[in-house]
Design brief:
Blueprint: H1 3-13, H2 17-37, H3 41-50, H4 64-72, H5 76-83, H6 96-116, H7 127-134, H8 145-155, H9 159-172, H10 174-177
Helix pairs in contact: 1-3, 2-3, 2-6, 3-5, 4-5, 5-6, 6-8, 6-9, 7-9
Length: 183
């Protein structure tokens, strides 16, 4: 599946700007992880782009609808990774793709939220400030902190290393993501 095909599928099910932006940020993080590990960048990017594709229209069936569509299209590896992108769903994670989507999803969303409240947004952001925000339960309260930790563990990385990996990916795309310093 190409990125263009994946985006068309995403657009069928997702309309809100915030969820489309989340899909894009996870896509960018997944592409960077694929590059880091010498894996298929397009496959990783598509997985990131589509991981929450059905969430808006089918929240009670998420991720079942997108997983079923991908399986119908013969995209079993991507479907399996998306089926297990939350560890509490108890889907086994065997491949690096399965592990990377868990590592990228919640943490990328959290870093994005943390950047939005900074005067300089993503510019100059460091892991220390993100780790501090993670301890503030009321900030981005919907982000599952345990899931964030498990994502790093699945990669065999400590959390600081994963944060330090994701920040520059978002910073490199700050204009598109509207994360550049205001003014």
């Amino acid at each position: 599946m190409t990125r263009e095909e994946a985006y068309a599928l995403l657009s069928e099910m997702t309309e809100t700007e915030s969820l489309l932006r989340h899909a894009r940020t996870v896509e960018l993080a997944m592409r960077a992880l694929a590059r880091h590990f010498g894996e298929d960048e397009e496959k990783y990017a598509v997985t990131g782009l589509l991981h929450d594709a059905d969430y808006e229209k089918y929240p009670d069936q998420h991720p079942g609808v997108i997983v079923a569509r991908l399986r119908e299209m013969g995209e079993e590896e991507i479907a399996h990774a998306i089926a297990g992108h939350y560890t509490k769903w108890n889907v086994p994670r065997h491949s690096r793709l399965d592990k990377c989507i868990v590592a990228a999803d919640e943490l990328t969303g959290f870093i994005y939220a943390a950047a939005l409240i900074r005067p300089t947004r993503i510019e100059g952001m460091n892991a220390k400030s993100v780790l501090k925000k993670l301890k503030t339960k009321s900030f981005a309260a919907s982000v599952d902190r345990e899931e964030v930790r498990k994502g790093a563990e699945l990669l065999g990385w400590d959390l600081r290393t994963l944060i330090e990996f994701i920040i520059p990916v978002l910073e490199e795309n700050k204009e598109e993501l509207e994360l550049g310093a205001p003014g």
